[in-house]
Amino acid sequence: MIYLLYGSDFDASRGKLNEIIAEYRKKSGDGLNFYAFDAEEDELGKIREALGTNSLFSNKKIVTIKCPSRSANKEALLDAFRNLKESLETIVFLRERELGTKELAELRPYCNKVQEFRSENKFIKPAATIFALGDTFFISPREGLRTLLGLLHDGHDDFNLFSYLANHVRTLLTVKHYGDAGKNVPSSRGIHPYVMKKAAALARGLSQEKLAISMRQFFDEDRKIKTGLSKPRDSLFSLLTDKSRQPRL
User: Fold this and answer.
1) Number of other CB atoms surrounding residue 3 within 10 Å
2) Integer angstrom CA distances of residue 211 from 165, 173, 208, 236
3) For the sheet containing 33-38, what is the strand order?
4) Global pTM value
């Protein structure tokens, strides 16, 4: 099943996305797996892997992909959608801003449902992104908490935020490990050059030890979420207030 949500009112499309995801999670429980990607930044291989890999905890999964029309490998990405239209186990949400006639015509054949969200306001406030959370979460818990609360207030899905940060800390640790060793990150790691550059700048102020601790904690919280012992929102707040993650004076 593939949904396409697009249009100038990005806040409204995100609200609709969260609403649909909440319904799926209600039906499937906490075992529902969730993957979030930005087609402009994430490697095609990672996206295709998420689309094709079954979960260990549930047969059903949700994959959200932002701006697929702007992917550098658009043709290959569209090809990955080819057999998913009839799938009941993999639910894909494609989110786009305004689309031209050509872009819409390219995506529509792969989608079961298409919905447009138009804004009547000519001066549209830029939509908040989760990337600001990635920039603050591991550096400044106080600023990270402020950013997290703002994103939740704006309607961002807590499961989406948790998944993004779990992937982000893995990227930061990988880039830090190779950077400290004076080596380039191998292309086999599947990290987009743009993402690598941003991660390297952020990782300079972090130690491998601190990042390793954070990664282990995310793994533990992920296990709790998938076994019903915690909710994504509670786990994020717990990680931010954990003293072992605080910078040493």
Assistant:
1) 18
2) 12, 6, 5, 16
3) 33-38, 61-66, 90-96, 2-6, 113-116
4) 0.52
The tally of domains found in the chain comes to 2
CB-based burial of residue 102 (10 Å sphere; 0-12 exposed, 13-18 middle, 19+ buried)?
Answer: exposed
Q: Distance (Å, rounded) from C-alpha 60 to C-alpha 40?
A: 25
- DSSP-derived letter for residue 110 is G
* CATH code, domain with 75: 3.40.50.300
Q: Domain ends where: 78, 109, 124?
A: 124
> How far, in Å, CA of 86 to CA of 77, rounded?
17
Tokens of 23: 């319904």
Q: How far is residue 33's CA from residue 10's CA, in Å, rounded to a whole number?
A: 24
Q: Give percent above pLDDT 90 in the chain.
A: 25
Residue whose C-alpha is closest to residue 80's, from 46, 106, 113, 51: 51
| pLDDT-wise least confident of 32-36, 52-56, 123-127 | 123-127
Provide the 8-state DSSP code for 153: H
